[in-house]
Amino acid sequence: MSKTLIVVDNDEIAYGQPQATISFEQYLRDYPKLNEGTTRIINLCDTEHYLSRGYYCSLLAEAREHRVLPSVRSINALRGSDGDVEFRLSRMEANLPAGSDIADGEYPVYFGACALEPLQKLAKRMFQQYSSPALMMTLKSHSGKYHVRLHALSPSDLLGEEKARFDEALDNFTRVVWKTSSTKKARWNMAILVNPEEALPPSDKEAISRFVRAARKLGIAAETIAAEDLQSIANYDALFIRETTAIDHHTYRLAAKAEREGLVVMDDASSILRCCNKVYLQDAFSYHKVPCLKTEVISDASDTTLAHLESVFGYPLVLKMPEGSFSRGVYKVKTRDELAEHLAQLFNETALVLAQEFMYTDHDWRIGVLNGRALYACKYYMVRNHWQIYNHGKKRSQSGGFETLPTFEVPKGVLNAALKAAKVAGNGLYGVDIKYREGNAYVLEVNDNPSLDHNVEDVYLGDELYMQIMSEFLRRLELRGK
What we know:
Elements: E1 3-8, E2 21-23, H1 24-30, E3 39-43, H2 53-63, E4 67-69, H3 72-79, E5 86-90, E6 105-110, E7 113-114, H4 120-129, E8 134-142, E9 145-152, H5 160-175, E10 188-193, H6 205-217, E11 220-225, E12 238-241, H7 250-260, E13 264-266, H8 269-275, H9 278-287, E14 295-298, H10 303-313, E15 317-320, E16 330-333, H11 336-347, E17 353-357, E18 363-370, E19 373-381, E20 390-391, E21 398-399, E22 402-405, H12 412-425, E23 429-437, E24 440-447, H13 463-480
Parallel strand pairs: 1-2, 1-3, 3-4, 10-11, 10-12, 12-13
Antiparallel strand pairs: 5-9, 6-7, 6-8, 8-9, 14-17, 15-16, 15-17, 18-19, 18-23, 19-22, 20-21, 23-24
């Protein structure tokens, strides 16, 4: 039989349902009890301060496998000062009825209930996101958006009418059945960052679904979320970025923030920083003696530079933007006029450009590397009548064919080059692109956010590809601890 306990700082503080109310000392001393059954804890102690009684009440409740409100995660998020619980919503996102005129101000929310009816759906959503008994929801409207900020209230500070409203909400809340899941509660929570509007996402919808299922089998509750819908990264234990990354972009900022919060992150911020800039990679390849095509970094388009490039590379040669993905920002030039034209175009966007020797092969190798070991292998074939695996020159982007193989069928030189290049980037999940000709491997780049699509990269391993990646998350989560 289940029961609900209301834990307070001391016995002098009275709320509704006094028969279910105990002091923090009593909860510390007398629980857990043998064969006590399902126990739900409503923690009304002051949680404003770190390591307070309220903090320890929720911490102990989670250790005792009691269902507790608020959770330690919610306490930490609401106690933060860096704007974690601060976001902007449109009227539709805030579930505000059409025609309702909500004044800027502060609105108390008790167990998800708000006195102002038009705000009830928003209040319930905030309570589901940050399940704290008493919240102050501050609204400010600006340019058609609502700036919402939450902070926790101490129930012991409520007086008069607000105290009566809180007691009524507490009574209503304890009379309903707390929702429980019929499945085993996941130990870890993962956010999978996606962009529904992205034309060429790193993973298609079916691959994402398989990641979610693989995570569930390992005790990780994974959910997809877009950057604009993410209210607090602190609500998760892990972040898996399946949106194309860039340095001057929310993916990099979010990865860095998630790492500061202690999450396990792929792609981690360092990998994004290293892999998204081809200048860094080429310099690192040279230093670590990674086999690669002849490449130079140039900073101007003077006649002297053009002559130098002609003498070193001849024609055709390849120009690359330092940041780019899916073959974007890469040009094959055949004449001096094309060379000057594309350099002028690139230098409008970047201070440095890479010039690289041109080597044609009918396919590029892609070796997937996870934590220093080869995970999968693909041959990506060039688009017909084109020199790249992607062709963005038409109205609709085209891609060539592919062949997925077991890693033991990959030439040893390709595997060795891939592992050596991936080590330069870090210990995350990478896709290493390599050309192979006449027994020699040439690394093109290391992708921190490699394509992982259903019926492409998973053709050989099947669901095991998703399980292995989620298993690496699990290993890192276990090392990190609760």
